[in-house]
Design brief:
Beta-Lactamase, alpha+beta, 4 strands, four-stranded antiparallel β-sheet, 5 helices
């Protein structure tokens, strides 16, 4: 065997070992057979958010996103998932109009932030989540809770998932205290 063949073989083996050692292991899925003592995400539905309060949440979101230079679509739905108010900021992408509404509806219907579905798919490997009706596995939908009851939800879209979520958190903070 030539020295060149031995060197090539050794380098190839080294690269395989490094690749195998550096490869990420798939996430360990949660135990789906575990039975929780309490129902998760069990906040009851309350009366629908008023148009005035919904608009205040949108205005707080606009102030934050304007400060950061982000053009967003912002939707607020009531406790039944019905659109109360919507704003498309100048320059926000058109595809995000329906996505913002969808994120808000997911958050109110499932009584949890839409990020829970993103985490279930991305971190938990629970791809069956994507087969549930009306799910969007993307952050940016936050329930609006007053006195322990869900009165609506806010959804933002137009940036990255983390930008959408950060924007929604500002609007949600006007209600969720």
């Amino acid at each position: 065997m030539s020295m060149r063949s031995v060197t090539a073989g050794a380098l190839g083996a080294a690269f395989l070992a490094i690749g195998a050692a550096g490869a990420q292991q798939p996430p360990t899925p949660p135990n789906l057979d575990a039975i929780p003592e309490k129902m998760p995400f069990a906040n009851p539905y309350g009366p629908p958010i008023s148009a005035q309060r919904a608009e205040a949440a949108v205005q707080a979101t606009i102030a934050e996103t304007t400060k950061r230079g982000w053009a967003m679509n912002i939707a607020v739905v009531d406790s039944g998932g019905n659109l109360v108010t919507f704003t498309r900021m100048d320059g926000a992408q058109l595809a995000s109009i329906s996505i913002a509404e969808h994120k808000a509806r997911v958050a109110v219907k499932f009584r949890r932030p839409s990020r829970a579905f993103e985490d279930a798919v991305q971190k938990g490997g629970l791809n069956y989540i994507l087969s549930l009706d009306d799910v969007v596995a993307s952050r940016g939908g936050i329930p609006l809770i007053e006195d322990g009851k869900i009165i609506g939800a806010i959804g933002c879209s137009g940036g990255t998932g983390s930008q959408d979520e950060a924007a929604c958190m500002v609007g949600a903070a006007t209600i969720n205290k």
